[in-house]
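TICKET: design request
STATUS: open
ATTACHED STRUCTURE:
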């Protein structure tokens, strides 16, 4: 499995007030989108999320998003290594993802940019 990078997931109260800081920090403009009831801004290696507390409570359980070349390959490596796939792989607007529980108890999202087959 080839890991291409990681995105830090940050839940914030006020996305509009928070984005300018991270744009300055990362040196780029945020890409904004909605995912369910959550407003999201992706800027550099940061994924800022704001929305109803019930939705954010679930999102806070995922430590980071790991970019991989192929989610199917990641699933195989993860399960062979003792991780438990909690959800996915599923198609998203940006590719596919899965959520995995590592043996140490940490939860990560793994995502690729491949279009669904």
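STATUS: resolved
RESOLUTION: sequence designed for all positions
ATTACHED SEQUENCE:
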């Amino acid at each position: 499995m080839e890991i291409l990078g990681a995105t830090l997931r940050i839940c914030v109260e006020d996305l509009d007030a928070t984005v300018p800081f991270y744009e300055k920090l990362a040196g780029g403009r945020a890409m904004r989108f909605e995912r369910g009831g959550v407003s999201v801004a992706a800027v550099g290696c940061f994924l800022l999320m704001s929305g109803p507390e019930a939705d954010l409570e679930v999102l806070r359980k995922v430590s980071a998003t790991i970019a991989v070349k192929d989610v199917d390959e990641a699933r195989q490596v993860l399960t062979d290594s003792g991780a438990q796939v909690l959800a996915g792989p599923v198609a998203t607007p940006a590719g596919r993802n899965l959520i995995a529980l590592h043996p140490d108890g940490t939860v990560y999202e793994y995502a690729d940019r491949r279009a669904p087959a």
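CLOSING REMARK: The helical segments are 15-26, 53-59, 71-80. The first strand starts at residue 3 and ends at 11.
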